[in-house]
């Protein structure tokens, strides 16, 4: 009986630890490029969850040479003169000191924080996204 309880406890702990590490059944990996060039060599830079395109916060900040600050349950990003603050699981972000309702809350996947890219793009009128196909999105920055 003790072995049975230990096995059940171990399975429960494994589910808790690994549960947030895999993409959900509805998540779709997307290739994300910047003007046609890969943003990262890692396979999980962008994911679609519930119809919303999410991007790895570290990768998108690095691409734009921005500032990234890790907070207790989220992150703060400074990209192209705009400030975005996200909390994991909270469907409200603070974009340039304004609360903005998100369609889907930021989440953690394999130790990385994913944020909706629309909130970053909408903060800067010079950023645009073009869908090449349903699994490839390209970011573009207007130079002038």
**Could you please say which CATH topology applies here?**
Copper Amine Oxidase, Chain A, domain 1
Unreliable residue stretches? 4-22
Q: Assess the beta-strand content as a share of residues.
A: 35-45%
CATH architecture: 2-Layer Sandwich
CATH superfamily placement: Copper amine oxidase-like, N-terminal domain
In total, the number of strands is 13
Alpha-carbon distance between the termini?
Answer: 71 Å
Overall SS class = alpha+beta
Rg, Cα atoms, Å: 17 Å
Summed up, the helix count is 3
What is the H/E order?
HEEEEHEEEEEEEHEE
Q: What is the global morphology?
A: globular
In helices, the fraction of residues equals: 10-25%
Q: Please, how many domains?
A: 1
Secondary structure layout:
Blueprint (H helix, E strand, L loop, with lengths): L1 H18 L8 E7 L2 E2 L7 E4 L2 E5 H7 L3 E4 L3 E6 L2 E6 L4 E4 L2 E4 L5 E3 L2 E5 H7 L3 E7 L2 E6 L3
Parallel strand pairs: 1-13
Antiparallel strand pairs: 1-2, 1-3, 3-4, 4-11, 5-6, 6-7, 7-8, 8-9, 10-11, 12-13
């Amino acid at each position: 009986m003790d072995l049975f309880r230990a096995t059940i406890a171990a399975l429960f702990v494994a589910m808790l630890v690994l549960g947030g590490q895999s993409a959900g059944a509805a998540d779709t990996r997307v290739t994300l490029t910047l003007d046609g060039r890969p943003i990262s060599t890692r396979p999980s830079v962008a994911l679609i969850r519930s119809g919303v395109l999410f991007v790895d916060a570290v990768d998108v900040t690095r691409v734009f040479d921005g500032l990234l600050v890790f907070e207790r349950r989220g992150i703060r990003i400074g990209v192209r003169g705009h400030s975005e603050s996200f909390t994991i699981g909270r469907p409200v972000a603070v974009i340039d000191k304004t609360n903005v309702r998100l369609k889907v809350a930021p989440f953690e996947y394999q130790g990385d924080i994913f944020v909706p890219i629309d909130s970053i793009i909408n903060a800067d009128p010079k950023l645009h996204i073009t869908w090449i196909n349903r699994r490839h999105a390209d970011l573009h920055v207007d130079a002038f």
